[in-house]
Amino acid sequence: MTHQHHSPAPAARGELSLAQKASLTSGAGDFVTQTAGDVPAVSMSDGPHGLRLPKERGDGGQVDLHSAAPATCFPPAVALGSSWDPQLAGRVAAAIAAEARAHGVHVVLGPGINIKRSPLCGRNFEYFSEDPLVTAEVGGAMVRGLQEAGVGAALKHYAANNQETDRMRVSADIDERPLREIYLRAFERIVRRDRPWSVMSAYNAVNGVPLSENHRLLTDILRTEWGFDGVVMSDWGAVRDRVPALRAGLDLQMPGTGGRTDAEVVAAVESGELDAGALDRSVARLALFARRATAADGSGTGEVSYEAHHDLARTAAERCVVLLKNDGELLPLAPDSGTVAVIGELARTPRFQGAGSSQVTPTRLDVPLDCLRETADGADVTFAAGYALPGIDVEGADDLVEEAERLAAGSDTVLLFLGLPAQDESEGFDRDHIDLPVAQVRLLERVVAVNPRVVVVLSNGGVVRTAPWHERVPALVEGWLLGQGGGAALAGVLFGAVNPSGRLAETIPLRLEDSPSHLSFPGEEGYVRYGEGVFVGYRGYDRRRTEVAFPFGHGLSYTTFTYSALTVLPAADGARLDVRVRLANTGQRAGREVVQIYSRGPAGSRVARPERELRGFASVELAPGEEVEVCVSVDRADLAHYSEREAKWRVEGGVHHFEAAASSRDIRLSVPVPLDGDPSGILLTGRHTLAEWLEHPVGGPLLGEAFARGRTDESAGAMADPVMRRFLAGVPLDVIADFPQSSVGPEDVVTLSAKVAAEAAGGEPPTDDHE
């Protein structure tokens, strides 16, 4: 069939031609959308932890991953997640929004809220946690902080983008329950509650269907179930076929393709391959998005206090530092603590952010070594590099270890800065291992041999293995990547001006092999099977009773806290439970505690459950001797698991235990709470087992009556025998009905199934002709 193509007629005011509509669904360039009719262009920038203002491409067409202009580099998500402080995350996002407005940026591409499935993921520094609740609370606060300041968020990367290996093509093959409970959960909470203006679809496929063409995820779940009313944009270069992508619910292809794929859309509409209504729906969403994003357009206007933002970056970094170990209270160091040897090139040449599309050019940078010298009032701070970083020339590299060893031996205390070089972790590739560089571990062994008073300070975007060497050092500080204010933050923590209060948002294992995903990461031949199911992170470590170096939620303080009087009271409407616990600061310093509330499911659950799951948390600051009551509200719906059989969320009835804790393995108090379960939505048939019938709230009593009516001595004996009853529990009812001695026959099964269906529908059950 031949189609004639005509030049589109000029559009009337407010009316767009087909070509104009198609053009709106792809970018005009790398970081700006098209304009057509009265639809304005939208300017975007990478910026999960600070603006990466894009440079124009050079003649070679290469993307420059460095920012064109300075912006405040706040702590990346790996650190900010360890703050467990949504309010702080909101303040950081508001500051990023102010800088965005000053540069004419309407939408910031972030936050990234993917789950840390494996410690090997090269992009883990851009993500908050292995837990969807921490991710949703901190990430959602960033969405609110941006959008309340008039700058749109692009929630990413939707969904199951949990590795960089083969990231453009790999299919994440995930069962429905872990998909819902782990990998979609944070997206769902933020979409429903915080209403992001846009969502960025990921490169990968889920269960064989590329995200950019995944109607189930982009339309059925995101829009129909969750009520998302914003724009879905692609990750940069993620669209494989523009026409099925539009049909699936992808509104905006980024970056632009110079009109090539726009022409494909026009041709598809004209041929009838693409319904014009699908294009119109995307155009309507894009027009609303553009007007919303540009409504508070302050392009190039507005004063930004970069000094104030630097102070906020430092304050944020202070809250992100995690004190993992402090034997003998070696920390904090006294200002006049004698001779302090600072060893490690990372103290002088710090890593403060990850590599890839999120790199920021900082407005300034606090160097740990300089800040330590400024903070150490009276202490004699000396320095030795100890090792060289890749790409940095150090004179006399062969003598670095000997110099460091001599310095350590002659000092009262050693601050040993270790961590990952930038080349070890980045967007675009995964790590091969989680070990520190061999040269750094050898340096540590030499230093500890000559001076037992060693504080190790880590700088890393992904988890590093600390075993077995952490047993030989009295103090260990996890500094992550802390942004441009990290140097001052670390100095403040080490010398006691700051009481550390960060908590691990991911488990530190003893070995990589202990990771629940280890045997199925990163997959092969284009597929990765999420074989650990819902047992991701601490859910897997704790369920298997695997020893870990430091558990999820762990973090020490320079003061002590005690918990008492845990109570759980359901709200009047039954929609939530108020968990209350008394918290006291029993030490000598002011400090912040993160009270963590976990729940354990009922005994005898019909589904495989983690040992415990985080249900809520509260960040509480207390003066010495102060005591307060902390209340954490838990939605009853959050206690549900996703039933694959019923295709819905379901709270299981029974005794749930609520726990107040300082980590997933430091449970301070626990109380049992009986809860009624949700009614079953299963419509029973003869293919359901005897056990499933007997457990069903409607089917169980009906079947019991049927057994009683048709009871024979032989069948009664079979049901009374516990071994035989257990043997029959897994047998479908229609198989039992076919046995001559059965109390119910095939016709009874049909009638009973109809009664269960009628009860579920609220109708009258059919007449039972066999009564």
- Overall radius of gyration: 30 Å
- Give me the count of strands: 26
Largest sheet: 6 strands, mixed
Low-confidence stretches: 1-13, 58-62, 764-771
Mean pLDDT score, rounded? 92
Shape: globular
Strand content: 15-25%
Q: Helical proportion?
A: 25-40%
The first-to-last residue Cα distance is 65 Å
- Judged by helices, strands and strand pairing, the structural class is alpha/beta
Strand order in the largest sheet: 9-14-13-12-10-11
Total of helices? 23
Could you characterize the architecture of this molecule?
The protein is built from 23 helices and 26 strands. The protein is of the alpha/beta class and 771 residues long. The strands form seven sheets. It has a six-stranded mixed beta sheet, sandwiched between helices. The chain has a five-stranded parallel beta sheet with strand order 1-2-3-5-8. A four-stranded mixed beta sheet has the order 7-6-4-16, with no helix packed on it. Helix 14 runs parallel beside helix 15 and helix 19 (699-709) runs antiparallel to helix 23 (746-761). The longest helix has 19 residues, at 276-294. The N and C termini lie far apart (65 Å).
What layout of secondary structure does this protein have?
Elements: H1 18-24, E1 44-46, H2 77-83, H3 86-102, E2 107-109, H4 132-148, E3 152-158, E4 171-173, H5 176-183, H6 185-194, E5 198-201, E6 205-206, E7 209-210, H7 215-225, E8 231-234, H8 242-248, H9 260-271, H10 276-294, H11 306-320, E9 322-326, E10 339-343, H12 345-348, H13 368-375, E11 380-384, H14 400-409, E12 413-419, H15 438-450, E13 454-459, E14 475-478, H16 486-494, E15 508-509, E16 527-529, H17 538-543, E17 548-550, E18 561-570, E19 576-585, E20 591-600, E21 613-622, E22 627-635, E23 641-643, E24 648-650, E25 654-663, E26 666-675, H18 690-695, H19 699-709, H20 713-720, H21 722-729, H22 733-737, H23 746-761
Parallel strand pairs: 1-2, 2-3, 3-5, 4-6, 4-16, 5-8, 10-11, 10-12, 12-13, 13-14
Antiparallel strand pairs: 6-7, 9-14, 15-17, 18-19, 19-22, 20-21, 20-25, 23-24, 25-26
